[in-house]
Structure formats: C-alpha cells, structure tokens
Amino acid sequence: MKSTLLKSVLLLALLLPAAKMLAADNKVTLTGTALCAKCTLHETDKCLNVLEVKTADGKTERYYFTVKMDHEKFCHGKTEGVTVTGVVSEKDGKKFITPESVSGK
Asked: pTM for this structure?
C-alpha cells in the first residue's frame, strides 16, 4: 500500500511540471473587439465577455471569457483595440480564453 502511494506521489510530482508547460504553450496574446455575448450578440441569457479577433483570411473568431472581467466596460456596445493575454481552450466548437491580463481602451 505504501509503495503504491509513493509511486503515485512521485508520478504526480513528475507530471505536474509537464502539465504546467503545456498550459504555458497555449498562452496567447490576442487583440480585437470586446463585447457582450448577451447584450450585443444576443447569444446568451447572461452577460459574458467576448473578444472578436480577425484572422489572416479575414474571418472573425470569437473567444469567450471563462471568468467575468470588467464587464461594464464592454457591455452594451463594442470596445475596439482590446488586448487579452491568456490560455485558450476549445469546447463544443467554441473557443474560450482564461485571461491573465486585459488592456486597451
């Protein structure tokens, strides 16, 4: 029993730094237009920050914030020139960003 527990702890200690490195690899800095998924896009029942980013081919990608930020700044309109640095993930065909920093107008 002790041997199995020790092996598990050692394995976790070895994998944790690798997991952190993978998360760091997903960190991006995006600049675009911040807006509200409820008030501006009419996609959700609750207010949610979204960053719209133009891709190189001219398409628009939406990144939904995983945490509530300074929502009053982005609600009921669009705020252009917003830069967000964070970790991007994808679920059910939507892109999400867990912001570490948000700056802009």
From this structure: 0.72
The token pair that represents 42 in the structure block: 């009419």
Q: Is 93 left (phi over 0), alpha (psi -120 to 50) or beta?
A: left
H/E element holding 25? helix 2-25
Name the band, by pLDDT with cuts 50, 70 and 90, for residue 73: confident
CATH number, position 84: 2.40.50
Strands 49-54 and 94-103: unpaired
Q: How far apart are CA 8 and CA 10, in angstroms?
A: 5
Domain that holds residue 66: 27-103
- Is residue 20 situated within a structural domain? no
Q: What are the φ and ψ backbone dihedral angles of 46, each rounded to 5 degrees?
A: -120, 155
Instruction: Report if residue 12 sits inside a domain.
Output: no
